[in-house]
Amino acid sequence: MRSHWRILVVDDETVMCESMAAWLREDGYTVDTAESGAGALELARVNRYAMCFIDLKMPGGMDGIETMMEIRRIQPEAVVIIITAYATVDTAIAAIKEGALEYIVKPCNPEEISILVQRTIKVKNLQRENEILRKKLTRKYQYHDIVTKNARLQDILNLARDIADLRSTVLIRGESGTGKELIARAIHFSGSRAKAPFVAVSCAALAETLLESELFGYEKGAFTGANAQAKGKFELADGGTIFLDEIGDISPKLQADLLRVLQERRFFRVGGTQEIRVDARVIAATNKDLAELVQTGAFREDLYYRLNVIEIRLPPLRERREDIPLLAAHFADRLNHELGRQVEGVSDDAMRVLMDHNWPGNVRELENAIERALVTCRTTELAPGDFAFLGQARNSHSWTIPPGASLEDMEKQAIKVTLERTGGNIKDSAAVLGIDRSTLYEKIKRYEIPRP
Amino acid sequence: MPVGAVEDIWLEAAAKCASETLGLIPARGGRLATPAECRDPKRDQYLATCVLEKLLTVGRERNLRVLGITEVDLYIPILTFLFGQAQLSGRLALVSLARLRPEFYGFSPDRELTALRLRKEVIHELGHTLGLVHCSDRTCAMCLSNSIVQVDAKNDAYCAGCGEMARAHLRKAYSGGKA
Questions:
Q1: Measuring CA to CA, which residue among B86, B108, B84, B80 is closest to residue B97?
Q2: Which B positions 78-107 lie with beta carbon below 8 A of chain A?
Q3: Of A135, A151, A178, which residue is a domain's last?
Q4: Which residue would you say has higher pLDDT here, A363 or A406?
Q5: Closest CA in chain A for residue B162
């Protein structure tokens, strides 16, 4: 079975390198070879290796043990096997002491190496799965979980790093699916508040009164059904961070309440008389233009300035297209593990489809697209056909005006599409188009539109 | 192609199996002398990658695949021995009879058993040239065998999955694309 793990073979003898690499490739691994310690380090800086086979004796510069120590400095998780033609107890002890998993004497029984590789890869697979599951469970994302080579996003990450330890309120703006919560979690989990809770609230999901009791908690008897006292999200986030998603959607009453909490760091539970103090950092997020909402009066100006102490604006995916190949590879790798698939990656043609797509749903849409493609993919590589659904979605939702189109052309097109949608019903079509039935009949005749 | 002296029955067995399993049209292409420079005198074995390279120089371009059959025992530096070797997604494959014979393990000679083992290894190595990697199905010819016991455990045929992949690669090869 094809494996996505890479193996490195380091030996000064070309024959040894190439023959071993060929043998491992037959097992489905991707194998790189290096003929010196320096060459091995160069490769280790670029690629992540599950296993490294290193010859003990190499002329000039670094020997096997030195090479191993340097590789383990770059990739502490890499498993190193030291190979030698002349076994001595001293070198064996030195190799194991410095972190080699095994010390093998060549030539080796094929079965011995096979078992060694299988055992190591099995552990690697379990470790990888554990890492993914743990991350999913705790969602303790860090900056290195954000995949990007976009200069603007990297600047944003640097800013986020700088402000992680501050208590200042942060406002994250960006379209849906750009990773606002991911950034908020990264700020929280890399700062001094990491050990305290990160509490996320979606302000759009709840009605006004529910959101109020959700945020501030309530006293027993505050309203029907309040059978016991309950703590709100602000209290639960004490010492940590509260993430208020879709802040642009909250009511004027809650805006006022929130402003007080931000100013005084104190509030009352719903139905409560005792003031509660909290030390929670507020990170708010929105996909709306708050400044515009302030202009129209839908959002309080004073709250806007309270929230907008540090502003982070996340670029949509279409403005960081260079990240699409990185993200696609990242999701394919992770989802392969999660879904138990062995798909090797995205073909060049399919990548062109991904690069051309507009991604209105941003990174989340890309992740879902890769997942859907992986599930339906029948070959070893994701092909353009696996992403056919992207085109369909786009065609059904967007209008294009061909060059040279006249107003009449557009009118004809609008009538044709409307008739198709109503199943040829003249009364409904006329209502949708906002014209008389007789006018519609006349236009159908004039444009010679076939009735569906 | 025989590498060194190889009895005709083994060449015929290999050719028949290549045509029956993969539909390849076998052609006998002369004889390659056992290449002395590939021999390690201390190990008294032949370096598989070196012998494979020799096949490259004699295997004519018009052949889709070149399969060498030899009596000599093969090795690569890291391993004590090999049953055979192939270029993954390449043109060349090589199978050694040395360790397929029961007499190597102290049993009495058995031509039928040797022929069966040869068929398994021929299908296995040709599979590699078609881009197939080892299969986890222990009965599939593409399963890795490190010992004669494992060779005996598998069939002289691909499992459904590997068979389908092999045919797909072959179609590509015949149509001129790279298999």
A1: B84
A2: 78-82, 85-88
A3: A135
A4: A363
A5: A1
Q: How many domains does chain A have?
A: 4
Q: Which residue has the higher pLDDT, A392 or A160?
A: A160
Please report the ipTM that was assigned to this predicted complex: 0.83
Which pLDDT score is estimated for B85? 94
Q: Are both A106 and A189 inside the same structural domain?
A: no
Across the interface, whether the CB atoms of B79 and A25 are under 8 A apart is answered no
Closest partner CB to A28 (pick from B49, B50, B134): B134
pLDDT at A361 over 80: yes
Residue B178: what pLDDT?
43
Q: Is B146 on the interface with A (CB under 8 A)?
A: yes
Torsions phi, psi of A207, nearest 5? -70, 165
Cα dihedral across residues B108, B112, B117, B121: positive or negative: positive
Q: In sequence order, what are the residues at sequence separation of 6 or more whose Cβ sits closer than 8 angstroms to the Cβ of residue B95?
A: B14, B67, B68, B69, B70, B83, B84, B118, B121, B122, B125
Q: What percentage of chain B's residues is helix, strand, coil (to nearest 5)?
A: 40, 15, 45
Domain assignment present for residue A19? The answer is yes
Domain for residue A326, yes or no?
Answer: no
Mark whether A230 and A127 lie in a shared domain. Answer: no
Q: Clarify whether residues A428 and A388 are in a common domain.
A: no
CATH class of B2-174: alpha beta
Domain end, chosen from A286, A313, A340, is at: A313
Q: For A101-156, what is each residue's pLDDT tens digit?
A: 989 988 888 888 889 999 999 998 888 888 888 777 766 777 777 888 888 898 99
Cα separations (Å) of A411 from A283, A407, A445, B54, B104? 48, 6, 13, 73, 86
**B86 and A26: CB-CB below 8 Å?**
yes
Is the model's pTM score more than 0.80? no
Q: How far apart are CA A92 and CA A209, in angstroms?
A: 70
The CA distance from A131 to the nearest CA of chain B, in Å, is: 25
Q: Is A27 within the bounds of a domain?
A: yes
Domain hosting A350: range is: 332-397
* pLDDT, average across residues A428-439: 86
pLDDT (mean) for A24-48:
92
Half-sphere exposure of A237 (CA within 13 A, CB side): 23
A53, A83, A111 ranked by CB distance to B146: nearest: A111
Residue A381's domain is classified under what CATH number? Answer: 1.10.8.60
Active site residues of B: 125
Query: What is the distance in angstroms between the Cα of B128 and the nearest Cα belonging to chain A?
Result: 7
Higher pLDDT pick, A405 / A68? A68
The pLDDT value recorded for residue A41 is 94
- Asked if B75 has any chain A CB less than 8 Å from its own CB, the reply is yes
Q: Say if B171 is an interface residue toward chain A (CB within 8 Å).
A: no
Q: Report the candidate in A1, A73, A189 with the shortest Cα–Cα distance to residue B162.
A: A1
Residue A54 pLDDT > 80, yes or no?
yes
